[in-house]
Amino acid sequence: xxxxxxxxxxxxxxxxxxxxxxxxxxxxxxxxxxxxxxxxxxxxxxxxxxxxxxxxxxxxxxxxxxxxxxxxxxxxxxxxxxxxxxxxxxxxxxxxxxxxxxxxxxxxxxxxxxxxxxxxxxxxxxxxxxxxxxxxxxxxxxxxxxxxxxxxxxxxxxxxxxxxxxxxxxxxxxxxxxxxxxxxxxx
Amino acid sequence: xxxxxxxxxxxxxxxxxxxxxxxxxxxxxxxxxxxxxxxxxxxxxxxxxxxxxxxxxxxxxxxxxxxxxxxxxxxxxxxxxxxxxxxxxxxxxxxxxxxxxxxxxxxxxxxxxxxxxxxxxxxxxxxxxxxxxxxxxxxxxxxxxxxxxxxxxxxxxxxxxxxxxxxxxxxxxxxxxxxxxxxxxxx
Lengths: 187, 187
Known about the structure:
The structure is a homodimer.
Chain A: E1 9-13, E2 18-19, H1 20-32, E3 36-41, E4 46-51, E5 55-61, E6 64-65, E7 76-79, H2 84-89, H3 93-105, E8 109-112, H4 116-121, E9 129-130, H5 137-142, E10 146-147, E11 153-155, E12 158-161, H6 167-180
Parallel strand pairs in A: 1-3, 1-7, 2-4, 3-6, 7-8, 8-12, 9-10
Antiparallel strand pairs in A: 4-5, 11-12
Helix pairs in contact in A: 1-6
């Protein structure tokens, strides 16, 4: 990787319960490619990360509250997993609107593991080919998604992966898609 | 409460991540009414309970593995919440079949908080009036459920509540419904 994301601003939207490795590794990957990242959450302060969903891990400082950001502030959106994280996000109207507006804008979005629940809540899965952690797939199908079981799948700038084991493929693909920039808006 | 559940056998199906108060309090309520309970899970050993989803709480011994039980072994089914708990259950084919068979048999079932995700996975929500934790409601609607926002709702023996704050109402209603026994099978 050279400097293909130089000057790009990436929002990482996460809340308590985020799976630590899915926050840290993709952030490192896009920063290594030159991007600037901000951790955006539903509250100021810190986000409590977890390992394997039930083992508390580190806490990460929140850069901005989602109610105070706009999709114009960023070039790409990263949604890490962890079951409790999207469970928190989907209860927050500003978080759901941010995800919906981002996907509908055609700007690239990466979502891994349980993160596609936020896509379900934003109703942006309909007609898209996506993957996720196994437990989320019925909810994706019921939301109108075309669900596949692959390490990484891309549909018009929306990159999804199944879980931590897919991080190398996910990280490479989000760097590629984030570098491509805005895609044709579906519809 | 008198002894209205005397001789009744209640399966409590739960996995790691179960919300402790939603395991302990309903179990106490049905045992106080005379029922015998068994903690059924996807593995032998112990189940790790949580407080507010991300704070590890106590561990509870598993009585039986779900792959080795039958709905004929029980008169009623209790499904506690906690986000990670149904997330684990819905990945286990025996657990999903157990829930599906139980609901379809007309025997009474109580599900609180995030537990209705297991009902979604078993595809037994279609045409039913249910409630749940707020984050689960879009998934219930997408699965064909008629979702309401009430402390407790009962539809042909299926009792659902929103979360820990509803435990008094939930506990009273499951004792009542479990005492009534098998309901007319829907469909």
